[in-house]
Structure formats: C-alpha cells, structure tokens
Design a protein that fits this description.
The protein has 296 residues and is mainly alpha-helical. It has a single domain, classed as Farnesyl Diphosphate Synthase, CATH 1.10.600. The chain is 65% helix and 1% strand. It contains 13 helices and two strands. A two-stranded parallel sheet has the order 1-2. The longest helix is centred in the last third of the chain and has 27 residues, at 189-215. It starts with a helix and ends in a 30-residue tail after the last helix.
C-alpha cells in the first residue's frame, strides 16, 4: 500500500495544477485529497489503456464498492475514504460508470450527454471533495458539482486531439457536423474551423459552471477556501489561454504561462458579501443524478 508521500508525488507528477493549489490546504486534508486523486487517476489509467483485462478490473472495483467488498486493493483504498467522510457508494459508482464508457469509442451526441458525462467523471469527484472538506449541505453540493463539471469541460476543450488518438470525441456531434475521432486527427481547413468553434462553445459553457462553482466556495470552511479558489482559477485560465491562442486546436496541450499561474496563486480569495442561490437551470440536464438540483 502506498504512503502519504507516494500520494503527494503522484499528484504532483500528474496534475501540477491541483498540486500547487493543494499547498494552501492544511496538511492532513491535503494528504486525504491526494489519496482521492490517486484513486481517480488509477481508474483513468485503466481506461486510457483499453482492453478486456482493464475493463474487467474496473468492473471488479465497481462490484466491490457496490457490495462493500475488498477483493481489489484500490477498493479498500476508496472505501476507507468513503467510511471516513460518509460518502455514499452511489457517488464513486457513478464515477466508475462514466469512466467505463471510455473503453468504447466515444462519440458524444448532444450537450445533455456531454454534461451527463462531465457529471459522472468529475461532478462525482466534487461531491466527494465536498464531503472531505466537511460540507454536506445540498446548496454546497450543487456548487461543488458545478465547479467539477467546469473543470472537466476545460479538460475536454484542451485535450481534443489527445482524446481523438484514443478514439474519443467529446464534442457534441451536431456542433461539429458529426466528425469522427479519425477526422479530428487529420482535419480539413473547414473541419478545423468547426473544431475550434465547438471548443469555444465548450469553454463558453464552462464559464457558467465556473461562475456557480466559484460563488459556492463561500460555503466551505475558511481554511479550505483559498486552495479551492486557486484550483478553480488555474483551471479556468486554461480555457482562457485556449481562447486567446492563435491556433487553439493543435496536437499539443496549451497551458497558461508561468506569469499567469503565479499571479493566480498569489491572488487572494474574496468571498461574496451575500449568499448565492444555485441556478436550477445548470442541472436541468443532469437532475436525475445524485446530489443534483432536482426539479420537484
């Protein structure tokens, strides 16, 4: 089993954004966040190397969590987090459902399908994080989901080419005239324009979720607010950098420069003076899923 230093190294290796933001968290919760990230990364790595054995492993982990068993080491890992922080098994099960979809060629059909996928693979992580940070109110959970969805939308906008190499296209098909992952790898000039336009639409969509997610940071205990604010702004800056790039869609990742990152990390969090109400319409497409803003 890994120790706390291993989890921290894994976080720093695979996500410098989250690692540097996590430095503003108290030491003990920082270790727990790194453990949760390790679990999520483990599942991602299985899906990024598709094959029958890897998919069977993910389904075994799913069965462990569903039936409260520990036949797989990673099951014991996440179950210890769930029990410590009172996380219901519906949340990691939804996460695994989303990741399991990546074993097949992915073609997102609509904005609704995109948001459902983003909820499964990221919104669920926001829910677990909120539990870990000691916030379990419905309002706080809604905003936590939104912030994680926003970050996942940023990932999708940034990784269009990389995802296509894995046979995946998360751009809603009617936004790109039903382009396939193969088309994205070798697009014509007109297809490149379509891809860039769809990328901009995803970034624009993410802004509404960032706005809600950042507004909801005020519901967190003060000792956690600075770290979550910095993580949100660092991720949001990736989308802004993509939008300002001369050739935003290309076969390499675009990142904010060091000056931009430093200015965000040095910026302080200022909570809203008034409590914010969650916007119901942000969850219209996902309100059948756990902890969302369901319509009565």
């Amino acid at each position: 089993m890994h120790n706390a230093n291993d989890f921290q190294k894994n976080l720093r290796l695979h996500s410098s954004t989250f690692y540097f933001a996590s430095l503003w968290l108290p030491s003990e919760i920082r270790k727990q966040v790194a453990k949760l990230y390790y679990f999520c990364r483990y599942l991602d790595d299985l899906a990024d190397k598709p094959g029958k054995d890897n998919q069977e492993e993910i389904l075994n982990i799913y069965a462990d969590i569903k039936d409260d068993k520990q036949t797989h080491p990673i099951s014991q890992h996440i179950q210890s987090i769930m029990k410590t922080y009172g996380i219901p098994n519906s949340v990691p099960l939804s996460l695994i459902n989303g990741i399991n979809k990546d074993f097949n060629d992915v073609q997102i059909l609509s904005k609704k399908e995109l948001l459902n996928y983003a909820y499964e693979v990221a919104g669920t992580v926001g829910i677990m994080m909120a539990h870990m940070l000691g916030v379990q109110s419905q309002m706080a959970q809604h905003h936590a989901i939104d912030l994680s969805i926003a970050m996942q939308l940023t990932n999708i906008a940034r990784d269009i080419y990389e995802d296509a190499t894995l046979g995946r296209c998360y751009l809603p098909s009617h936004w790109v005239n039903h382009l396939s992952p193969k088309d994205i790898l070798s697009p014509s000039s007109s297809q490149t324009i379509q891809i860039n336009q769809a990328m901009s639409q995803i970034i624009e969509l993410s802004e509404a979720y960032y706005l809600s997610g950042i507004a909801g940071i005020q519901y967190l205990p003060k000792k956690y607010q600075a770290a979550i604010f910095r993580a949100a702004k660092l991720y949001q800056a990736i989308g802004h950098t993509l939008e300002s790039a001369e050739k935003p869609f290309q076969n390499k990742k675009i990142k904010p420069n060091a000056f931009k990152k430093s200015s965000i990390l040095l910026n302080s969090y200022q909570p809203c003076s008034n409590q914010v109400q969650h916007k119901v319409d942000l969850h219209l497409d996902i309100n059948h899923l756990p902890f969302t803003h369901a319509i009565d």
